[in-house]
Amino acid sequence: MSMLDTVLIWISRNHKRWQGDLEKWLSIPSVSAQEAHAGDVREAAEWAEDYLRNIGLKVEIIATPRHPVILATTPAELAEPGAPEVLLYGHYDVQPPEPLDLWQSPPFKPTVRDGKLYARGANDDKGQVHAHLAAMLAWREINQKLPVRMTVLLEGEEEIGSPNLMAVVQAHAAQLRACKTLIISDGNQFAKGVPSIIYGLRGLVYAELTVTTANTDLHSGQFGGAVANPANALARIIAQLHDEQNRVTVPGFYTDVRPLTDTERAAWRQLPFDEAKFAGDLGVPAVTGEAGYSTLERLWGRPTLDVNGLTSGYQGPGAKTVLPCRASCKVSMRLVPDQAPAAIMAAFDAHVQSLAPAGTKVEVHWHGPGSPPALTAVTGPAIAAAQRAITTGYGIAPVLCREGGSIPVVTWFQQALGLEAVMIGFGLPDDRIHAPNEKIDLDGYFGGIRTAAALYEELGQALR
Amino acid sequence: MSMLDTVLIWISRNHKRWQGDLEKWLSIPSVSAQEAHAGDVREAAEWAEDYLRNIGLKVEIIATPRHPVILATTPAELAEPGAPEVLLYGHYDVQPPEPLDLWQSPPFKPTVRDGKLYARGANDDKGQVHAHLAAMLAWREINQKLPVRMTVLLEGEEEIGSPNLMAVVQAHAAQLRACKTLIISDGNQFAKGVPSIIYGLRGLVYAELTVTTANTDLHSGQFGGAVANPANALARIIAQLHDEQNRVTVPGFYTDVRPLTDTERAAWRQLPFDEAKFAGDLGVPAVTGEAGYSTLERLWGRPTLDVNGLTSGYQGPGAKTVLPCRASCKVSMRLVPDQAPAAIMAAFDAHVQSLAPAGTKVEVHWHGPGSPPALTAVTGPAIAAAQRAITTGYGIAPVLCREGGSIPVVTWFQQALGLEAVMIGFGLPDDRIHAPNEKIDLDGYFGGIRTAAALYEELGQALR
Fold this sequence. Notes:
Two copies of one chain form a homodimer.
Chain A (H helix, E strand, L loop, with lengths): L2 H11 L1 H12 L11 H18 L2 E5 L6 E5 L11 E7 L19 E3 L2 E3 L7 H18 L5 E7 L9 H7 L1 H5 L3 E4 L11 E6 L1 E10 L5 E2 H4 L6 H10 L22 H8 L5 H8 L12 H6 L3 E10 L8 E2 L2 E10 L5 H15 L5 E6 L7 E2 L5 H14 L4 E5 L4 H10 L3 E4 L14 E3 H21 L2
Parallel strand pairs in A: 3-6, 3-7, 7-17, 8-16
Antiparallel strand pairs in A: 1-2, 2-6, 4-5, 5-18, 8-15, 8-17, 9-13, 9-14, 10-12, 11-13
């Protein structure tokens, strides 16, 4: 029996322990977007610091203008001789839990129902980061030494666009460049029983669009019909952002989109994707989207423009006959290779101004600089090692997928450190990340711990 | 010197007293729409009860399923022999004060700036009702007897559509039918220095439109592009409710609209209306509205459709990449003669369903049964008496106007009791009713007390 086999058995015997540890971390409401939770974000960082120290790593909590970054390194004597250095990136902050009334159990009171652990962050990203921490702990307990020299970088601002991460990365660039690969577990398996390696991500830009008219809210009877209504005006602008084919109308939006290859489209058609079940699980009458593309193509290979929030006038109970003076929306655009955030932002700005109805003032504010889309090579020893590790961890070989979400740091690490990411996700597509009732499937989580343990062994061999 | 002259002098000598009394009433946050304020609504009713008792009236507080109605009558010995019975209608409830951060002084802490009294309800309707109460009190103090036998009916649910008023009116119909005319002061003068009598009102229907898609909020990266977005869908529906001429597209919407007569349009063109000042005061770059009509025609003689509130997704600070599963808006339509609320509601329901984008579910909920538009005759002894009273109270003869707002009870009283309303407003069009920084011009308020005092004398003679 190999040492890895012993580690895997040990992992299986300690499921309750891993889950209990994770539940403690999930109980800390580390919502990075809301200032009221700044202390909780700090507490979640300190929890991870303690956990990493307990594994034996040397840990530093690096202050930033907002939420701290954790940087942990493996002392030479705790790794096998000649073990390659490997960087693990993750985040310990979470999305806001609102709307709270739609949660079946409180978002920060982890609750198991039917083999799934429900809590904000259970999937994104505490659950997946913790699978790695548990795997490291298991290696240390069974073998004393790790098969790789792990550098662990955990940030507390991923859900607000990582405004301070790159300054920290740049300040530690020399040290981080010594790493031979980057591991990120911040995504999903293709489906339950279909583990995957992710080789492409969409990028993101996020705007707030505000329409103003009068200098105060007005009575809809006294003024209605003679003064522009910003809510109607905003609706008219939003409605003009798509055409009848559900294509985005911003001029130049598709200019830099790299067409999907026939090979890629053929490969995706082979994936076990059940569109009826997909729609049924979400409770939608039918899928919909850009004409001429399949659901997977729409999600992975085509850009989008979605309203993420609408705000205007009176939103309380009952009726208030107010003619609002302001209406706003939050709009996110998911980008695909080779769209550039700055070009899309400029095109959107100009287009929206051209749509401003008479009697209104339109302003666009961008939340952050945006993140570019990413595509990584699917050849090389690290990807091959990950394929073997997943086969060991989940008992089945992985498929190659893209993902519709964005992990901006993938591009940034590539640009700043020359490191390409190995992206293996332990979650499932129906885990409702960013939404009420986020969960992680416990089988997927335990399989993730096994996969991480095997990955360290495989990388320790492959990257020597 | 006539008794009225003495009363008017007495009113002028007691400005501080009237204002102080009004400020006490305005300090009670009688917000009928918000259950948390139910106790305050009750307190405002009791304040009025005490005030009316102090005048000498016999007062009853009539319970309803929600907020009480006050009914006060004048004992025979407190009115001049043979004095005609007259009904005064008003309301002591107010609109919600939100958004609070836009108020320069707290909405329920009455504050005088530059000759204007700022508070929620200062105009609508406590300030105007109190002008009548002060006039009654002055008559009682100077003359012991009132020139008319006043019946005062004050409700606490006007701002939520008067759901329980008509049951009370019907239960007291025999008593109320004895009244020879109905006085309502719940509107405005045409402008400062241009007092008016209002002979037309728009009606109102108020809908809540909800678009739902998936069974939960989703991650905009994981699902964006393949699932209908209810916020985008709602925007598309709203945008299609008007055409390029700003005409409402609901089929049949204009079928029953009575065209404005050339006489009426000519009379309105003579009114001292300064469109540039109107736009400048509101801070809008230009007026806008239905093509082919002037601003006054749009406000008084044409129906509208306005969004009063928009709600969807994440509305907090910063960015949340959520694909919402629900979006809703509040929509009010102002109606003109001879549009019928029920017909408009049915037409709107059908039209909105026809606009529902694929993959969405659209529902309409109506807040209340709506109120029909009203037009009253401008001839007859009561209107003539009001014209003389305004000339006495403000020192200038009134113009004849319509108003863009709705006072549903005007039609209801006409239908239930056969009483046509004499509508004389003491407010000004820039008083920001239903909006932050509502006010009443103190000159207009004191002129209103004088006008009310003179009106009772004139009606006492004219309706004998």
